[in-house]
């Protein structure tokens, strides 16, 4: 019976370990990958994310940013010029025609859903007058966003040796786009019917990011991920099959960037979508977004001098701190490393920042929070005066003053002795002169 109990206990222990252990990251085919939690900007998985690569169709995200920032009226209708239709041979287009009149909004759908290179150029000309001038804006914006390894030469992503980016920079651009008003409304649209124009009939487009397309009519069920909500996919000979996929589940968000992936020659499966879906599922299964410390939570006490009613001050968290942590651990498992100012002296105002607490687990930092004074601490007038006297008595100036005083006293005594000796000498000499004069014989 005892043996049976021990075996059962062992099996239960093994089962519990497997249930809480962090799973292995799924095998992926993409060459350049970055998976980031958008609540915290914490990187969950990275593969060659800092390597310079061809951006391919992901260029269109920057094009969309500039259009949305520079054209406030998305219902403005503009005319397609022949110049915008040049240099895009072999690229995916929306079939725009010279002289066609179409709204900015519908051009954005043509660009982001259909991946239309012609729509990119038409929008660029509307913003800057020419694609060349617009590309200058693109590079300026990339630098402003904080991209350090990105350079553009066109508006749509045609392969060019002088056009490059990294997965890290693509994340910065994607996050900026997601915060740009109007972008996610388009980027999260599964299907769009674009009304006919003066030259073209009605257009029907499914989003090219099949991870957000749930319709069986699109025949992409295997890629669909219920929590995905954008953003863009594409492919070129040099960038491979790419996708920037965003997802949101219970207010926890991720962006997964997969670049330089493959397409199966026989099944035609696009591994960029398969990789992104697997990584997003991995993230949601293995990480949780938790409050690791609450606002005003007491963390530590620090000694304080010259206080009227206390000799310590309580340090509390400035605000709530949320962090992405492995699901296998609890917030209470995190090590807290507290640092605070030394030699604190009253008065101290409530909420004054006095220190910091850092949260770690197995050497990995999961966040840090400022520590502030829980309440105001008043200064004791008596202690302040006593302390002032004590500091004065031990100050350098006081010591210099004492030395100077001693030197003056010594000098005074030396001078006094010297003067007295001189006076005595003069008195003795004077007495001798008088004595000689008294006994000197008078002359005849």
UniProtKB/TrEMBL annotation:
E.C. no: 3.4.16.4
GO biological processes: cell wall organization; peptidoglycan biosynthetic process; proteolysis; regulation of cell shape
GO molecular function: serine-type D-Ala-D-Ala carboxypeptidase activity
Organism this protein belongs to: Feifania hominis
Catalyzed reaction equations: Preferential cleavage: (Ac)2-L-Lys-D-Ala-|-D-Ala. Also transpeptidation of peptidyl-alanyl moieties that are N-acyl substituents of D-alanine
Residues covered by the Peptidase S11 D-Ala-D-Ala carboxypeptidase A C-terminal domain: 287-379
First and last residue of the signal peptide: 1-21
Domain of life: Bacteria
Transmembrane annotation, as ranges: 397-419
Pfam families: PBP5_C, Peptidase_S11
Main function: Removes C-terminal D-alanyl residues from sugar-peptide cell wall precursors.
UniProt keyword annotation of Transmembrane helix present: yes
Organism taxonomic ancestry: Bacteria, Bacillati, Bacillota, Clostridia, Eubacteriales
Protein name: serine-type D-Ala-D-Ala carboxypeptidase
Keyword rRNA processing: no
């Amino acid at each position: 019976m005892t043996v049976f109990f021990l075996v059962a206990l062992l099996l239960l222990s093994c089962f519990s370990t497997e249930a809480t252990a962090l799973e292995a990251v799924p095998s992926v085919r993409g060459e350049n990958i970055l998976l980031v939690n958008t609540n915290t900007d914490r990187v969950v998985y990275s593969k060659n994310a800092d390597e310079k690569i061809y951006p391919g169709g992901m260029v269109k995200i920057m094009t969309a940013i500039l259009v949305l920032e520079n054209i406030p009226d998305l219902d403005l209708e503009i005319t397609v010029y022949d110049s915008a239709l040049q240099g895009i041979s072999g690229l995916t287009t929306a079939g725009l025609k010279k002289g066609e009149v179409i709204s900015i909004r519908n051009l954005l759908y043509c660009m982001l859903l259909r991946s239309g290179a012609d729509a990119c150029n038409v929008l660029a000309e509307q913003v800057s007058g020419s694609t060349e001038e617009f590309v200058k804006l693109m590079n300026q914006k990339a630098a402003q966003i904080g991209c350090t390894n990105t350079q553009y030469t066109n508006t749509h992503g045609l392969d060019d040796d002088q056009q490059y980016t990294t997965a890290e920079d693509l994340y910065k651009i994607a996050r900026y786009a997601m915060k740009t008003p109007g972008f996610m409304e388009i980027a999260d649209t599964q299907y769009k019917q674009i009304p006919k124009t003066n030259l073209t009939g009605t257009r029907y487009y499914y989003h090219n990011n099949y991870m957000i397309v749930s319709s069986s009519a699109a025949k992409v069920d295997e890629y669909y991920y219920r929590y995905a909500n954008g953003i863009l996919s594409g492919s070129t000979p040099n960038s491979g099959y790419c996708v920037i996929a965003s997802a949101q589940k219970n207010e926890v968000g991720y962006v997964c960037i997969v670049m330089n992936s493959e397409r199966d020659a026989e099944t035609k499966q696009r591994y960029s979508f398969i990789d992104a879906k697997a990584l997003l599922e991995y993230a949601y299964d293995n990480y949780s977004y938790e409050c690791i410390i609450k606002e005003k939570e007491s963390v530590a006490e620090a000694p304080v001098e010259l206080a009227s009613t206390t000799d310590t001050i309580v340090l509390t968290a400035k605000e709530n701190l949320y962090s992405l942590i492995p699901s296998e651990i609890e917030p209470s498992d995190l090590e807290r490393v507290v640092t605070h100012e030394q030699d604190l002296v009253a008065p101290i105002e409530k909420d004054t920042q006095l220190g910091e607490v850092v949260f770690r687990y197995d050497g990995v930092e999961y966040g840090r929070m400022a520590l502030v004074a829980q309440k105001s601490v008043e200064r004791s007038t008596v202690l302040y005066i006593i302390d002032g006297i004590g500091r004065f008595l031990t100050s350098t100036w006081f010591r210099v003053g004492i030395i100077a005083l001693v030197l003056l006293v010594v000098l005074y005594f030396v001078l006094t002795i010297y003067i007295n000796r001189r006076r005595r000498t003069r008195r003795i000499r004077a007495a001798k002169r008088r004595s000689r004069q008294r006994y000197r014989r008078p002359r005849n």
